[in-house]
Amino acid sequence: MRFILTFVWSFALVTLLNYVVGAIANVPFNFEAGIIISVVVGILVILVGESMPEGPISDN
């Protein structure tokens, strides 16, 4: 479930950012580029989240 929500939030935020930046730069909105970038961002977020330790780190 967390992977699905990660991709949903990634899609929503990257598409919104794509729209706003495109409107400011006066370029046409490209939906396909937003989808591709959101998938890449979602995968990166999942990989970073999985690489972090879950419990407290002991001071040996």
> Roughly how much helix do the residues carry, as a percent range?
over 70%
Specify the structural class. mainly alpha
Report the radius of gyration as a whole number of Å: 16 Å
End-to-end span in angstroms? 35 Å
Label this structure with key terms.
0% strand; 2 helices; 60 residues; elongated; mainly alpha
Q: What would a concise description of this structure say?
A:
The protein has helices at residues 2-25, 31-51. The protein is an all-alpha fold and 60 residues long.
Structure characterization notes:
This protein has one domain. It has two helices and no strands. The protein is elongated and about 55 Å long. The model has no long low-confidence stretch (mean pLDDT 91). Helix 1 crosses helix 2. By secondary structure, it is mostly helical.
List the helices and strands and how they pair.
Blueprint: H1 2-25, H2 31-51
Helix pairs in contact: 1-2
